[in-house]
User: Fold these one by one.
Assistant:
Number 1:
Amino acid sequence: MAQAVLTMTDRGLYCAAGDFFIDPWRPVDRALITHGHADHARPGHRHYLCTDGCMPVMRHRLGDIVCETVRYGEMRRIGDAEVSFHPAGHVPGSAQIRVAVGGEIWVVSGDYKVEDDGLSEAFEPLRCHTFISECTFGLPVFHWQRQAVVADQINRWWARNMAEGRVSLLAAYSLGKAQRLLHLLDPAIGPILTHAAVENTNAVLRAQGVPLPDTIRITPDLDRKAHPGALIVAPPAVLGSPWARRFGALSTGYASGWMQMRGVRRRRAADRGFVISDHADWDGLLGAIKATGAEKLYLTHGYTDIFTRYLRDQGHDAHVLATEYGGEDGAEAEETGDAA
Amino acid sequence: MKRFAALFTVIDQTTRTSEKVAALADYFSSAPDPDKLWTIAIFSGRRPKRAVTTTRLRDWAAEAAGIPLWLFEESYAVVGDLAETIALVLPPAQSASDDDLSHWINLLRGLIDSDDEARRVAVLAAWDRLDTTERLVFNKLLTGGFRMGVSQKLMTRALAQATGRDEAELAHRLMGEWSPDTTSFTALIEAENAAADLSRPYPFCLAYGVEDLAALGPAADWLAEWKWDGIRAQVIVRGGALHVWSRGEELMTDRFPELARLATDLPDGTVLDGELVAWDGAAPLPFAALQKRITRKVVPKKLLAEAPVILLAYDLLEAGGADLRATPLSERRALLDRILAAVPQDAPVQASPLILALDWEDLGAARGKARQMKAEGLMIKRLSSPYHVGRKRGDWWKWKLDPLTIDAVMIYAQAGHGRRANLFTDFTFAVWQGNELVPFTKAYSGLTDAEFGQITQWVRRNTLQRFGPVRQVTPHHVFEIAFEGIQESPRHKSGIALRFPRMLRWRQDKTVDQADTLDHLKALLAQYG
């Protein structure tokens, strides 16, 4: 029986061979970070390690941290562990972390999606003995359409709003989803305005060469009537707020995998729900897991109980791994994991 | 089905009434007649009869999706809507279909007389020819739960726009006993109406809650009546026959055999609007007495003697076969009183008494006596008003009593359905009896979505035990529960039953030991029960 490469502690996933943690939720000496979302990259660690593509956003969000970077695929030796970062396809710079100790290989998926969104580095399947996978959308009701189809829905909605004299407000998480949407928008339709939270992240990503269309930052002195038919990209919190009402006649859209469910869509009180996620859908999860060839599976984030039971039914050695990333089930993940 | 699915999509994607009406009007202008007729039927609650049990649908959906049944059930628990869950788990359709709505409805009606295997084959074949939205609509038709944010009123307005006919006239045409089998779009909507069905009721006039008494002008322009806690009903005597309709357009004639004599007690060509109440000879019995009658299609003699029903009539819609709805209320009421004065003393109908008041203050005092009168409050109606179609602001107002309230502790929570799937919204509340918390009511409404979100987070972290979908939680949160009435009930553990319980306020300022006691609840029962 091979030694466990990673173990669960009250601070997060720990590698004894290299004396480091992966995405820990309490302060530690050395933290390896999969990506910059707040539930994975937390403040207070003494030393950070992440990909070079992930670092600028981490700096932007966490301030003056001690942070070392690696390129995708670059092998690092930490203590007795060999560590490398590989594209997770979740957001630009996001990674799966592969840890090898004495020939035993474990992979921590972080958050991932398998469709190439053209902006994030495409998900790379990794062979391993043990795979720790997220399963935010681990139910057979979640099936994503190709992003070109959703892009077409969004652009048509925007063009129609413009024709009817309405501004379009598209709500999306400010790191990752917002930029992916910007990338999918057709700038020929009209001007694109951004909320400060989105634009600040845009600036960081543009500086590292991520191709984004031209956008206009919404500042307090911006003439709101000067951009008729504009599309605004803003964080979900602005839906129904006085900030949003100042733009006059609006049509609101919400872009998230949760929009697959009518109940959630109606609760969000947006006019339109666009089903687009930076997480893998049901088939994406099953495909990714199969490609690892892993003998042992640990599941975090989302419908872990149900998904794990299904994998066991299918003959896998699968276990729930309690973490503090997402929540116990979908509704909580919906509230904390806005990146969905 | 594509046209109807597109209509469903537009309606589902907007919260604006004007857009819904426009989409419906567009549909009514372009769809084939049989589809229009079915659409009217569906949106007025006339669904095709259920041909397949939901148990079988779950089996077949799991089979087609290639997933175990337990996983389908877990998915359903998360999604909260069976038709939607099925639509989402199925693999992509292998082909498409241009068949219209009527085709699919006729197909599923044909399943009623088929055996199980034929049903299975037909349903699986249908799923394989429909896209996700079409499947959702088809499944809604199969399961019979068709609610999609279109009221009958909205549908009627759209129909008026599409046909150029008067909305009120259309509303009347859509009332009563018809189904797509007994009529056609032309007969229902367009034909000259001379031979209209004798049983057809008028659309009910509905009231809003009063907001500002002062804005109503002089009290002398208004009449006031008790707002009874019974069943709103329209009693029709035409062609020597009696028909009793509920507000939900259900024909209730046979449930109230004691009303049968009204066919001869009242003059032919009479239509009354009023409230059915269980009557003790002088005053209404509590609603619970009436409730026992509602569920019974055949009424045992004993129950008939214990809870005889009468109509407290307050409006006259037709007399001598003439439609009086445009006549001012003052005249309708005077004629009503004349007609009722001529019926036999023991007839199961009485005029609902008018409340004489000199001014609003006087009326306020009368309202204070409503509970004593076994009423829920007052109705205030403008003397010069016509009998409107549906809910219109301005002429009819309800002035209800403030609800009774009690502070109670939440002890169980359960997730809601549909829009509230994934949120804990259904709670059980308890009051103290010594050191024990005794459950006495459930409540589902009254909190904002944000509050439900907050309590949902809390429930997840404070679950003591699970009983299937129900979670027992730490007794911690106190809610002010409002209700309209309180009655003794041997069926409840606490011995009492509340009418219309809901959460008035989340009392975050109170701790559990400050919640009310069962004795307090019993005192309310003694006073108001």
Number 2:
Amino acid sequence: MTAPSSALAAPDLEAEAGVATALDALAGPGSYFTGSERMAIAAHVRAARGLASETPALAPTIATNAARIATEAISVRPEHIAAWEADGYDVLAYVELVAVVALITSIDSYRVGLGVELDALPAPRPGEPLPTIGEGAVKSNAWVPTVGIALAPTALSALPKEKGYKDAISKIWYLTDEFVHKYGVEPGRELTRPQMELVASRTSWLNECFF
Amino acid sequence: MLRESSNQQNLPVDITAVTGEMIDPLVPHGRELMAFVDAVVMLDFEELSIARQALHDAAGPGAVTRAAAVCAGFEGTNRVVDAVGVPVNKRYYDIGDELGVTVPDHLR
């Protein structure tokens, strides 16, 4: 596999493989959306962020929520999810929407940071959505069902496939489970742990996120 | 996490730099890292070309790649936790006060 060329960034073949896997996952049918719908959501996210201009047809409720999550997630309120359900969509379809928005946003921001072109959105893979729901997923302390208490690592746990896609690329980009809570241990990345935490903290602050 | 890792490694850090302007975080190449993140998250391509070059010159091409990677991961995570209403852990309230930010009511 060849990494996109950037004169100022070192190639990372593991990350390239991770991005390719994530894009392939985005292009396939999910639990509630077809591959075509997931790619349309991704295109709308790019447009909402000013990274693309063309957007394929997408139901207004889905497009509106995708744009909100992509550009001002801190403004989301339970009322938005209630309206989503009132429009006839399953709350777990909302979780899938969040997962798709987050994954394509991450991939695009990675490319922006590296200074290379965005990946072409892959052709959707055919097939009907097939719900795969986490056992025991219920609403507890968040606005959507989760398996167990809702924390950052469990936020997408109601849809284990979506959680898996996000976890896989996150471990490549940041820290594996082996290191994530061992604050005194350096994982041997190009940046030290405090440097990576500074990047993470600043990113969260700019997104008005308190995680 | 920033404070925790710095404490455990006995390294200095000024976490108020995270939310402040012109404050040195005391982390090596901290200013370059923050300028780079600012440009990526704000999609400020003009500033980004400057910030990327500065980070590269200060810390090397691997630092650019890793900073882009970590930033990218949190771009996603931030959207997930805010969009599904994961409440902020109460143990972070004090840090929020220290940084001059208030946890919004809807995430308490």
